[in-house]
Design goal:
Elements lengths: L4 H4 L18 H10 L8 E6 L5 H16 L3 E6 L10 E3 L4 H7 L2 E3 L9 H9 L3 E5 L21 E3 L4 H15 L2 H13 L1
Parallel strand pairs: 1-2, 1-4, 2-3, 4-5, 5-6
Helix pairs in contact: 4-5
Length: about 190
């Protein structure tokens, strides 16, 4: 995705969404997730990952994360990529509908090998109010401020080391904050205002 493309993507103009929204109508973001998962009564923490531009190390980490995340209750994983026939436990969304993926997801996981090649997708995710979970990296540290529940400030979650345990712990930290709707909405607003 070209950085200029992020300017044409907006959750209030995206025709792939069930319910367009902006910073004043954030409740419609939740409605998109509800409709995508076919009106399930639960409201699972939903994480989106893009299956492209992964190093061999990050591909291995992603495989391990999929196993760990699928074992968590009240958690869903959405992959942007081509559906794998042998993996029905995941929801897949076409790369042509990234906006829909970001609208239904609560958080966006960006792995270290993707920070240079998928930076514009990170910016797009934030425009859609999808909270980033990213490596502490020179490219991300200028736009991602770690969320601090005490001060109720920040727009994302950072992991320092590129290993399964640090990344998984950061996902769990984001999921725990998601359980507090007021705080989570503040994080979403901070993302969208960025």
């Amino acid at each position: 995705m070209n950085p200029r493309d992020t300017q044409k993507y907006s959750p209030n103009r995206d025709t792939h969404l069930f319910h367009p929204y902006d910073i004043k109508t954030i409740a419609n973001k939740k409605k998109n997730k509800h409709d995508f998962f076919q009106n399930q009564k639960e409201n699972p923490f939903t994480l989106v990952v893009i299956e492209e531009n992964l190093s061999a190390t990050d591909e291995k980490i992603l495989h391990q994360l999929v196993e760990g995340i699928s074992a968590l209750s009240d958690t869903k994983l959405v992959m942007i990529g081509e559906e794998q026939k042998n993996d029905r436990s995941l929801s897949y969304i076409s790369p042509l509908q990234k906006g829909l993926a970001f609208a239904v997801a609560d958080a966006f996981l960006l792995l270290p090998s993707q920070t240079k090649t998928l930076f514009s997708e990170l910016l797009m995710a934030m425009k859609y109010g999808t909270v980033p979970i990213v490596p502490h990296d020179p490219k991300t540290k200028n736009i991602i401020r770690p969320f601090d529940p005490v001060s109720e400030k920040g727009n994302g979650f950072l992991f320092v080391e590129n290993d399964i345990w640090n990344i998984f712990a950061t996902i769990i930290r984001a999921k725990e904050n998601y359980r507090f709707p007021y705080d989570w909405e503040n994080v979403i607003r901070s993302c969208m205002e960025n």
